[in-house]
């Protein structure tokens, strides 16, 4: 998603129930972005394909954050983003727990983006476009994370 797309969106066109969904999304996207970064900063030796997928998902979630910030008043967007970082310290979680948390947040985002698409379809096509594009990315993220988790769990069972 480009910044020029969010520059064209008008925050006044967003309905109150959509604001609640956008805040949830901002929190989830902030959190997943932080968790993806934590994985990449960790000392884990990830297969190249997994590291690449995590890096790409982190970059896409960063783009989603920018999209969402463009839809909300700056003070609201910043407060939601800061609150998401105060959740759980990713360093205190095991790798599979981090993947599970990210997958849960990506699936939450998929549901919220789907709701926004349904609500925005009747009037705000620009909001629909942002939500639909982000929905597509998050569907891929959730599916990829599920596959990664299945693979890491299978490897850990083989090692036992």
What is the general shape? Answer: globular
What percent of the residues sit in helical stretches (DSSP H or I)? over 70%
DSSP strand (E) fraction?
under 5%
Query: Mean pLDDT across all residues, rounded?
Result: 79
Low-confidence stretches: 1-11, 156-160
CA-based gyration radius: 16 Å
How many strand units? Answer: 0
Provide a count of the helices: 6
Based on secondary structure, the structural category is: mainly alpha
Biggest β-sheet description: none
Q: Keywords for this structure?
A:
160 residues; mainly alpha; disordered C terminus
How is this structure best described in words?
This protein is mainly α. It is 79% helix and 0% strand. The chain has 6 helices and no strands. It is globular and about 45 Å long. The relative contact order is 0.17. Mean pLDDT is 79; it is low at 1-11 and 156-160.
